[in-house]
């Protein structure tokens, strides 16, 4: 939610304030990133004939994506 985004931004101690639209954009992009990450990781789990998602599945997705993925 936007409270978590605001909290994270506050912890970064930025020398400027973010407008509500910028916070909403950060939230939208974060949700999109996580949705894509988990969807791809679940695809890997099903490839291995599992319904349980493991940390290794997520790490494999991040390895496949390369350095673009922080």
How would you describe this structure in keywords?
mainly alpha; 70 residues
Model description:
With 70 residues, this protein is mainly α. It contains three helices and no strands. Helix 2 (20-47) crosses helix 3 (55-65). It is elongated. The model has no long low-confidence stretch (mean pLDDT 87).
What does this entry show, briefly?
With 70 residues, the protein is mainly alpha-helical. The chain has helices spanning 2-11, 20-47, 55-65.
Number of β-strand runs? 0
* Terminus-to-terminus distance: 21 Å
Q: Count helical runs.
A: 3
The major beta sheet can be summarized as: none
Low-confidence stretches: none
Please estimate the helix content.
over 70%
Strand/helix succession: HHH
* Average pLDDT rating: 87
Tell me the Rg in angstroms.
Answer: 16 Å
Shape: elongated
Fraction in beta strands: under 5%
């Amino acid at each position: 939610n936007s409270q978590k985004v605001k909290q994270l931004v506050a912890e970064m101690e930025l020398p400027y304030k973010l407008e509500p639209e910028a916070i909403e954009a950060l939230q939208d992009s974060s949700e999109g990133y996580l949705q894509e990450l988990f969807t791809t990781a679940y695809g890997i789990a099903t490839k291995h004939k599992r319904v349980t998602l493991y940390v290794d599945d997520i790490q494999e997705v991040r390895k496949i994506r390369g350095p673009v993925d922080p």
